[in-house]
Amino acid sequence: MKEYGLLGDGILGSDFSFDIQIKEGAGAFVCGEETALIMSLEGKRGIPRSRPPFPAISGLWGKPTNINNVETWANVSAILQKGGEWIASYGTEKSKGTKNFSLAGKIRHTGLIEVPMGITIREIVDGIGGGIQDDKKFKGIQTGGPSGGCLPASALDLPVDYESLTAAGSIMGSGGMIVMDEDTCMVDMARYFLSFTQAESCGKCVPCRVGTRQMLDILERISKGDGEPGDVEKLEKLATTVRDCSLCALG
């Protein structure tokens, strides 16, 4: 791009300069959190910082920093070219535009999809995913990545937008969608995601470091058939503590 004068100093002969530097991370999941990402970019251990101050006030090297994910930046050029009204013509009143999802699980067609905000889960599962494999029953869908939530079959006609997913107990998150059929064990599903988040915990705060380990121990016992009375209540209490007291959204 620099060869064509589209990047660097004096773009296209103007007095406007703009450059891009790509830095490869080490792959830590926690660095999806903005302050942990800043720490990594500064060459430090990728762990979240306490906020405030927020990155917009004090970010990279203590300077005001605007942080967005790749999906947001990928939309910028099209919005600049076609205008705000164009992107606002997609989606709902409160959730404008489109969203990319990684569609996976027990469906006929998996892959990376882009859909307008407000599309229903049913339209995604049946219309894009081709329905459940082997004509089995739809059991639920996990959205939002490892820190997201599971929605039951009763939520099939739920609109996929920020407000609706949050109200239903899940999140948009990183755009993950995993479809489950009647054979999927929800305990195994919870254990799978919790084992990931527990392994990826940076260990900085006690609620996440210790709480996720305790929750995983309980789920592993249950999955082996060694569950005890009160396990579900313990999980609920631990989950609330980890969520409310952790430093970042990984917990």
From TrEMBL:
Gene Ontology terms, MF aspect: 4 iron, 4 sulfur cluster binding; FMN binding; metal ion binding; NADH dehydrogenase (ubiquinone) activity
S-adenosyl-L-methionine as UniProt keyword: no
Entry-linked PROSITE patterns: COMPLEX1_51K_2
Listed Pfam families: Complex1_51K, NADH_4Fe-4S
Domain NADH-ubiquinone oxidoreductase 51kDa subunit iron-sulphur binding: 187-232
InterPro entries given in the database record: NADH-UbQ_OxRdtase_51kDa_CS, Nuo51_FMN-bd, Nuo51_FMN-bd_sf, Nuop51_4Fe4S-bd, Nuop51_4Fe4S-bd_sf
Key words, A-Z: 4Fe-4S, Iron, Iron-sulfur, Metal-binding
Family of the protein in this entry: Belongs to the complex I 51 kDa subunit family.
Name of the molecule in the record: NADH-ubiquinone oxidoreductase 51kDa subunit iron-sulphur binding domain-containing protein
Protein's organism: marine sediment metagenome
